[in-house]
Specification:
Elements: H1 2-15, E1 20-25, H2 30-47, E2 50-55, H3 58-71, E3 77-78, H4 82-90, H5 96-106, H6 140-145, H7 154-164, H8 182-191
Parallel strand pairs: 1-2, 1-3
Length: 192
């Protein structure tokens, strides 16, 4: 509920001076776009403000922003991953004051998520509004036996990779490059 309130507040604040707002999203899958467009329709019915939903592939986001800036067509709202937001914020494309005000007024919606969007000077590049879990599963006993801290910083992750590297044992890191079928997933689980 807090997530929806924060997102609605952002939309209302951004759209206060406009009859129409442009919202870029990297959620380009058809079922997600259908839901987002339905929410935009509901928002228009409740506020009278039209929301133009523009799907942008995440890999194209950083290419599209400078093009839109040069054309004077930057979006009013932008949804995307943390890495592009940090890059865009560091290049002064984002409104740090507004993002900071919203986070300060509402709190850190997802515990610790806002710090990942910090500019390092007490302000934020953006507002986290989803909590997609990207995690590292690790054996605490192996980390404890080597006096390694939890893998919560890049330094600790790199240190653990160096210290725990043992070519005589096999460790596997698996990255899915496409959506797996249920059978492919079960096969990989058995294989591992």
């Amino acid at each position: 509920m807090k997530k929806l309130l924060v997102l609605m507040l952002v939309v209302v604040l951004v759209s206060a001076a406009f009859a129409k707002i442009t919202f870029w999203t990297t959620e380009v899958e058809s079922d997600r776009m259908q839901r987002i467009r339905a929410l935009a329709t509901i928002f228009k019915a409740q506020t009278g403000i039209d929301v133009e939903v523009v799907p942008v592939e995440e890999n194209d986001l950083l290419k599209q922003i400078p093009i839109a800036k040069n054309a004077g067509t930057l979006p009013d709202l932008l949804e995307g991953g943390i890495e592009p937001m940090i890059l865009l914020g560091s290049q002064n494309f984002l409104d740090e004051d507004l993002a900071t005000k919203i986070i300060n007024d509402f709190g850190d919606i997802y515990n610790g998520a806002a710090r990942m969007l910090s500019n390092g000077a007490g302000k934020y590049y953006g507002i986290p509004f989803t909590a997609w879990v990207q995690g590292i599963w690790y054996r605490k006993d192996m980390f404890a036996s080597q006096d390694l801290g939890d893998p919560v910083t890049w330094y600790n992750i790199a240190l653990a990779a160096k210290v725990l590297n043992n070519p005589k044992k096999v460790f596997m890191v698996l990255f899915y490059l496409k959506k797996l079928t249920l059978m492919q997933n079960k096969y990989l689980q058995k294989l591992l």
